[in-house]
Amino acid sequence: MKNVEHIGIAVKNFSEANALYHKLLGVEPYKTEHVASEGVNTSFFKVGGTKIELLEGVNPESAISKFIEKRGEGIHHIAFEVEDILAEMERLKGEGFTLLNEQPKKGADNKLVCFVHPKSANGVLIELTQEIR
Ligand SMILES: CC[C@@H](C(=O)O)C(=O)SCCNC(=O)CCNC(=O)[C@H](O)C(C)(C)COP(=O)(O)OP(=O)(O)OC[C@H]1O[C@@H](n2cnc3c(N)ncnc32)[C@H](O)[C@@H]1OP(=O)(O)O
Ligand SMILES: [Co+2]
């Protein structure tokens, strides 16, 4: 694992949350992206060497909508950047973590991603990300 690539924050109102983080961080999001496969709208803010990813669910089945329904708004996941996602998935499986996808899938911001179940990681949803080269 290289660095914390982003922190994902679940929000109810995307435009209000973007305005708030703009005020908080003093920068505009450098990108917004709809990811249909996850049922989310995302926006990304650069902060130091990492990023904040705001996530809004666009349908009730989205992981973000379910999370907000159960637990309210807030930190949803931590994403770590990896050099070789397949190798890292194998390593984590070997260490007893529960992976939520068998194969890397396309995430936002030009990344391949894989999630680790929060129940196998002290209640924290972990995302592995590898840049698509
Ligand atoms: C935009 C793409 C990508 C990127 O490029 O960055 C993203 O970040 S997408 C982000 C959204 N996508 C995902 O989160 C995909 C992975 N998540 C899942 O597969 C599911 O959300 C889940 C983690 C398996 C939970 O789904 P499910 O079991 O259907 O939901 P429940 O509501 O029943 O939850 C079960 C249990 O887990 C707790 N939970 C759920 N989400 C989280 C979380 N983010 N962090 C910590 N705990 C979480 C939930 O509270 C339930 O616990 P109990 O109530 O104790 O049973
Ligand atoms: Co993410």
From TrEMBL:
TM spans (from-to): none
Keyword Lyase: no
Native source organism of the sequence: Pontibacter actiniarum
BP GO terms, sorted: L-methylmalonyl-CoA metabolic process
Keywords (A to Z) from UniProt: Metal-binding
KW Metal-binding (keyword) present: yes
Protein name in the entry: Methylmalonyl-CoA epimerase
Family statement: Belongs to the methylmalonyl-CoA epimerase family.
